[in-house]
Amino acid sequence: MAYDIRNKTILVTGANRGIGKVLVESFIDHGAAKVYAAVRKLESTAPLVQKYGDKVVPLQIDLADAQSITAAAQAAKDAEVVINNGGAFQQAAALDEGAIASLEFQMNVNVYGLIHMAQAFAPVLKANGGGAFIQLNSVVSMKTFANFATYSASKAASYSITQGLRESLGEQGTVVLSVHPGPIATDMGDAAGLTAIAEPPTLVADSIIAALQAGDFHVFPGTMATQIGGAYQSFAENVVEANMSEG
Hints:
The protein is an alpha/beta fold. It is built from 8 helices and 7 strands; from the N terminus they run βαβαβαβαβαβααβα. A 7-stranded parallel beta sheet has the order 3-2-1-4-5-6-7, with helices on both faces. The two termini are about 25 Å apart.
């Protein structure tokens, strides 16, 4: 089902930098009426507010704090599109001493935070005609790299939850996207040591807008993502996106 973001009210988590900031800018440039810039520290949205004025509304959300998410859903009752871009990254291999703590930290933000966001905003989206719920996952949700094992595991779990949301939210007319970027030029990409192969975050924004218009579920922005997505396409179409019973 095609979806047009023009004149829509959009909420983006992790909106103060990296992919999130570019998403805010791109959606406004493509005709969004208003964007809630959801961040942990409201003052970090000052550059966006200065640039776009009242089209950007700062909103406090900490994905590790369920109460902040519930409060945000009460404040943003006019949201028609929710993009859960925020996330946590820690580099750890499975054999590292701190692997368990790293996984627990990332699961709390990347998976439990996603579930809290979906639960809080599902009624909002339903009340506003269905809208769209978009989750930023990663290519590492499908391909684990040893040094990023705990992050990959958290993103594999968030991808699994996103598949379930596609069915659950679809029942109320909400479009769901699972976005799987490759290395992107952000602070997180730099921290992961991917600067040399990283691509512009505008690729993510453009791919999301195109996927909404095309009615796609999986989105693979960037060169590496396109390669993995191409290899994954048959499984995605015939298993993940197929109507299969649980019995």
